[in-house]
Amino acid sequence: MPLTAYRRALPLLRIPFSVYLMPVFWFGLSALRQPFSPWRAAGVFVVLHLLAYPASNGYNSYYDRDEGSIGGLRRPPKVSRELLHLVWLFDVLAVVGAGFLSLWFAALVAVYLLVSKAYSYEGIRLKKYPLLSTAVVVVFQGAYTFLMTQVGVAASLTQVSAPDNLVLALVSSLFLCGSYPLTQVYQHEEDARRGDRTLSLRLGIRGTFVFAGLALAAGAALLAATYLYRQEERHLLLFLVATGPVVFLFGQWARAVWQQEAAADFDHTMRMNQVSSLCMSVAFALMLLW
């Protein structure tokens, strides 16, 4: 039955995994100093996290054809043509839904979706170039999404282009620069088999953790400096308290990997994603209230 085939393909959109990207959404909103519509923010969330990100996930899965664990799925189902149909449907819904909020937002979402296709499509496949693929992910899932979220809630050009806001957008990219290689650390064998020379594969397992730690520390330092510049000491305090568990977990995981590299596995990676996403989302969401 065709409907059954679509149901089997649906998990490859990895909608729950898309929620791990929530911190950038909340971060973008928390950086705004002028009020915005909660309804527009909800619309932006639906477009990005329930439509655009799943479409990108599904398209990537279609061309990766993973046999081992992937982000959010321990045992991914077989890829089928129906998955591509779902991707196209979600693409259209994302752009149309964004259009109801603003044409500029729709244009930004469309560009994001096109870039995500170039990342995975076998004829281009930016993913196989370690530095280029990292730059694309870091920019488009970081600063670009940060600013796109603000455009979606109708923030003024003055707010979006303010120097301190652009620095915070850069911070979001630094955080992505640290976290992105960690999501690849357990897939070295499969990436190498496909010919995808990912950044984590180039760095090696231990090198990935060193690189991630440096990038995350740089992002945190720049964030702290910017909050102090904006006289938002309470925001800095919230961030430090909420991300304490993330720092602890990362340190514990790194120590385990140094003792035995097999600890760089799917379970540890997913737990790191879950804890960091939850803690950072809570921190940035609370900043909207305090």
Keywords:
mainly alpha; 0% strand; Farnesyl Diphosphate Synthase
Instruction: Please estimate the helix content.
Output: over 70%
Shape: globular
The main β sheet shows up as: none
CATH class, please?
Mainly Alpha
CATH architecture: Orthogonal Bundle
Give a count of the beta strands, DSSP E runs of length 2 or more.
0
Percent strand: under 5%
Helix/strand-derived category reads mainly alpha
Question: Whole-number radius of gyration?
Answer: 19 Å
CATH topology: Farnesyl Diphosphate Synthase
**End-to-end gap:** 52 Å
Write the H/E string, N to C.
HHHHHHHHHHHHHH
- Total domains, how many? 1
Query: Unreliable stretches, pLDDT < 50, 5 or more residues?
Result: none
Give the count of helical stretches: 14
Average of per-residue pLDDT values: 90
Overview of the structural elements:
With 290 residues, the chain is mostly helical. The chain has one domain (2-287): Orthogonal Bundle (Farnesyl Diphosphate Synthase), CATH 1.10.600. Helices cover 76% and strands 0% of the residues. The protein has 14 helices and no strands. α13 packs antiparallel against α14. It is globular.
Q: How is this structure best summarized?
A:
The chain is mainly alpha-helical and 290 residues long.
Summarize the helices and strands and which ones pair or pack.
Layout: H1 2-9, H2 15-18, H3 22-30, H4 38-64, H5 81-101, H6 103-120, H7 130-152, H8 157-160, H9 163-182, H10 188-194, H11 199-229, H12 233-242, H13 244-259, H14 266-287
